[in-house]
Every structure is written in structure tokens, then in C-alpha cells.
Specification:
Number of helices: 14
Number of strands: 26
Distance between the termini: 5 Å
CATH architecture of the largest domain: Alpha-beta prism
Pathway: Cell wall biogenesis; peptidoglycan biosynthesis
Bound molecules: uridine-diphosphate-N-acetylglucosamine, phosphoenolpyruvate
Function: Cell wall formation. Adds enolpyruvyl to UDP-N-acetylglucosamine.
Binding site for phosphoenolpyruvate: 22-23
Largest sheet: 4 strands, mixed
Pfam family, one: EPSP_synthase
Radius of gyration: 21 Å
CATH superfamily of the largest domain: Enolpyruvate transferase domain
Number of domains: 2
InterPro entries: Enolpyruvate_Tfrase_dom, Enolpyruvate_Tfrase_sf, MurA_subfamily, RNA3'P_cycl/enolpyr_Trfase_a/b, UDP_GlcNAc_COvinyl_MurA
């Protein structure tokens, strides 16, 4: 099994360039399915396992997809869609595969996708996606592990209120509604920057979407969308992870490409912890010369504190001065990293949806596992400051979302390598 081997105790210093956002590029790749004429060329596409998986999903549908790892571009030609079925082997690997349902329904009037199932961080139902499709006039059937949706006479615009501002449901419904007849009004949608990025790409393709990033999105259906070139926004979670790495190692790191507007709650909490943050138009400089102070964090939909930064902040709190509370409100089971952090000598108690983290002077390196993507990031962060060697296993989770992690961390002075054992 491949592992990451980290020797802790090195201060991080220098510059690191942030790649395109995983959570923007995945729905945007799904949206390329709407392009009937002309290919799309996506730029700033990160070299991630998830990008590879969704590319395989599209290939399975008969679409031409080509990733250029030198240029970080992805070419997608969806002029022909030969199949509307996504198999279990691919959907199981990555839940975001389900994002092809909206575009397939809009473009082909049908879609058959394997039920995604649960995952380490929660059960993650898709009821809000399905309610949205039904409101647009689709018929949904569930059986034999698949969800089949059909709208043989096309979709019709509707007023849809989301009970919770789900990121995936907002994206899936927005993509389906682009080609529905008439207007769709989506109330209480997710407001994440990745929603805005998807809407911008769809609008470049010819869609008529207004209000993405606010609490009401209006979509006027059009009859045709065409493939276009588009550049993906930087990954705010990757940026946030390097910011925490800089803080924990008492380093001095310039995070190139980071958009501070997207990182407000992360920046606010780091400042509260005593970290110095300097923002400019090209990135963010993070410096820290003393032990961080404990802070409380509570995850919320955007613009609240992101759940995808919760595990990394918990890693920081394990070595901060004092006691911090970490409350997870978005996912019901996103504390899998707690037991792993405890193996490294941290002092954490879970009380329902809150973890009480009492800072310790030192973590000790040992064998741990990445139980999910951000839990894996938390283990790497802990390993960077632990005494001795930390071995992180199950790193396929980390490969889903961190582009060239080892190269980037080594470039900042960390002692980390990848091995096969
Ligand atoms: C590829 C991608 O962009 N992934 C992100 C996306 O995931 P994803 O789109 O899956 O997250 P959602 O916003 O949909 O989920 C948030 C909460 O809503 C619940 N829910 C969601 C849909 C639904 O139909 N019913 C329902 O109950 C989920 O179980 C979860 O508890 O947003 C999450 C929340 O910011 C992030 O952690 C993920 O990194
Ligand atoms: C939970 C995450 O991603 P996904 O929704 O793709 O599982 C994440 O990026 O932390």
C-alpha cells in the first residue's frame, strides 16, 4: 500500500501555487455535456484522481476527453453522447459523478445513474437533487441500485425551494434548468464560489443564469448550449490547507493564486489564532512565529466556515495553546480523523456534533490513515509538526483532492515522500 512518510519539525517557507478548484472543475466537467456544438477547453484543471474519474465517466458516455498534464488543460468534445448510463464502479469511486444527471436529463431527456451510496463522512442522500428534477417535470424511478430519470417531452421551468442549500443539488438543478422551457427560480440555493464558477461557465456556453452566489438563482431556459473555453477558479480549500500548514509550522508562506474573498472565515479564524495574514491581489502571505491560540469553529454552508477545512483546523488545534471547540453542522459523521489524531498524542473528546480539543505541547509521529480526503490532509498537517516519523496510509483519499501535494510541500521545505509498501 502506498504511504506518505513525513519527518516532522520543518518550518515551511517560500511560495506555493494553488491549483484549480476540485469542487469547481467537477461540476464544470459535468456541464460540458450540455455543449452540443464545438468542444470545451478547460484551463487550470488540477491533476486529481477525481478529475480522472469524472473523465472516465464521460468517456463511458461516448464523449471525447483528453487531459494535458503539461498545460493543465482538459479538452472535452460532447457533440455526440452515445450512452446515458453511469455505472456503479465509477459512481462508487466519486459521488460527484452524480452531477451528470442534470446535464444528461436536459440534453438527452434521460439518465440512468448508479445510486451513489453512503460515504465515510455521512449518508449523503440525494433527495434534494431528485425533488428538483421532479419539480422540473422529470419522472424518477429507483430500482436495482440505479436511479433512472426521464423527461421525454423536455423539462419545464419551475419555482424550487431547497430545504437545505446543498451544493450538489444547486449545481445539478441549475444545469438541468438551463435547457428547460421557461424560467426556473431556485430559492435557498448554495452560495459557494464554485456555484458562481459553474454559472459563469454555463453563461459563456449560452445559458441565462442570474443571481448565482446569492440566495435566489433565476434561470431562463435556452434551446441550445455550445462548448466553450473556460478557466477554473483556484481551490480555496487547497489554499486554506497550506495556510494552516504555514501557521502550524510557524512558517512564512506566500499562497499564490489564493482569493482572499473566498477564504474570509478561514482568514478570520487564523487571525484569531494569532497568525499574521497579508492579502493582496495575487495571493495571501501567512506568517506565524509563535504557538497558535485555540479558537472555536463551527462549520456552516458558505459564507460560513467550510466543512472541508474542519479537519485541518482540528489538526492545528491539537497543538494550539488552550482548548477549542469544533462543531460540525454540515455532515453528520465528519470526525473520523479524531481517532487518528489521538494516536499521535492529541487530546480530543467528542460530544455529539462537537469535538473538544485541548492543545498539547507535542504530537508524536506514528502510523495513521487517511479516512477521507480532508482527514488525510489533517494527518499530513499533524505529521509536519510531530516528533519523528509519521506514516499516512490510504492516501488514495488524499489523491482525490490535492494536486502534487508532495512536490508542493517539499518545495516549502517539508520532509515528505511517497512510498510503496
Ligand atoms: C464535489 C463537491 O463540490 N463536494 C462538496 C459539496 O458536496 P455535496 O454537494 O455532496 O454537499 P451538499 O452541500 O449537497 O451536502 C451538505 C449536506 O446536505 C445533505 N444533503 C445533500 C443533498 C441532498 O439531496 N440531501 C441532503 O440531505 C448532505 O447529506 C450533507 O449533510 O459540498 C460539501 C459541503 O460544502 C463539501 O463538503 C464537498 O466538498
Ligand atoms: C467532501 C469532499 O468532497 P466530495 O464531495 O467530492 O466527497 C471534500 O472535498 O472535502
Amino acid at each position: 500500500m502506498e504511504k506518505l512518510i513525513i519527518n516532522g519539525g520543518h518550518r515551511l517557507e517560500g511560495r506555493v501555487k494553488i491549483s484549480g478548484a476540485k469542487n469547481a472543475v467537477l461540476p464544470i466537467i459535468a456541464a460540458t455535456l450540455l455543449g452540443q456544438d464545438g468542444p470545451s477547453l478547460l484551463d487550470e484543471v488540477p491533476a486529481l484522481e477525481d478529475v480522472h474519474t469524472i473523465s472516465e465517466v464521460l468517456t463511458e458516455l461516448g464523449v471525447k476527453v483528453q487531459f494535458d498534464s503539461e498545460k493543465d488543460t482538459l479538452f472535452v468534445d460532447s457533440s455526440v453522447i452515445a450512452s446515458c448510463e453511469a455505472p456503479y464502479e465509477l459512481v462508487r469511486k466519486m459521488r460527484a459523478s452524480f452531477l451528470i444527471m442534470g446535464p444528461l436529463l436536459a440534453r438527452c431527456g434521460e439518465a440512468k445513474i448508479s445510486l451513489p451510496g453512503g460515504c465515510a463522512i455521512g449518508t449523503r442522500p440525494i433527495d434534494l437533487h431528485l425533488k428538483g428534477f421532479e419539480a422540473l417535470g422529470a419522472e424518477i424511478e429507483i430500482g436495482h441500485g440505479f436511479i433512472q430519470a426521464s423527461a421525454p417531452h423536455g423539462l419545464k421551468g419551475a419555482r424550487i425551494y431547497l430545504d437545505f442549500p446543498s451544493v450538489g443539488a444547486t449545481e445539478n438543478i441549475m444545469m438541468a434548468a438551463c435547457m428547460a422551457q421557461g424560467q426556473t427560480i431556485l430559492e435557498n440555493p448554495a452560495q459557494e464560489p464554485e456555484i458562481i464558477d459553474l454559472a459563469n461557465y454555463l453563461n459563456v456556453m449560452g445559458a441565462k443564469i442570474r443571481g448565482a452566489g446569492t440566495n435566489v438563482i433565476k434561470i431562463d431556459g435556452v434551446t441550445k448550449l455550445i462548448g466553450k473555453n473556460y478557466t477554473i477558479i483556484p481551490d480555496r480549500i487547497e489554499a486554506g490547507t497550506y495556510m494552516v500548514a504555514a501557521a502550524m509550522t510557524r512558517g512564512d508562506v506566500y499562497i499564490e493564486n489564493a482569493i482572499s474573498e473566498h477564504l474570509k472565515p478561514v482568514i478570520a479564524k487564523l487571525k484569531e489564532a494569532g497568525v499574521t495574514i497579508e492579502e493582496d491581489v495575487n495571493g495571501i502571505r501567512v506568517t506565524c512565529d509563535k504557538q497558535t491560540k485555540a479558537v472555536d469553529v463551527k462549520t456552516m454552508p458558505y459564507p460560513g466556515f467550510p466543512t472541508d477545512m474542519q479537519a485541518q483546523f482540528m489538526a492545528m488545534l491539537t497543538v494550539s495553546e488552550g482548548t477549542g471547540l469544533v462543531t460540525e453542522t454540515v455532515f453528520e459523521n465528519r470526525f473520523m480523523h479524531v481517532d487518528e489524531l489521538k494516536r499521535m498524542g492529541s487530546n480530543i473528546k467528542i460530544d455529539g456534533r462537537t469535538s473538544v480539543v485541548e492543545g498539547v505541547q507535542k504530537l508524536t509521529g506514528c502510523q495513521v490513515k487517511a479516512t477521507d480526503l480532508r482527514a488525510g490532509a489533517a494527518m499530513v498537517l499533524a505529521g509536519l509538526v510531530a516528533d519523528g516519523e509519521t506514516q499516512v496510509g490510504y492516501i488514495h483519499h488524499i489523491d482525490r483532492g490535492y494536486d502534487h501535494l508532495v512536490t508542493k510541500l517539499c518545495g516549502l521545505g517539508a520532509d515528505i515522500r511517497r512510498t510503496e509498501k
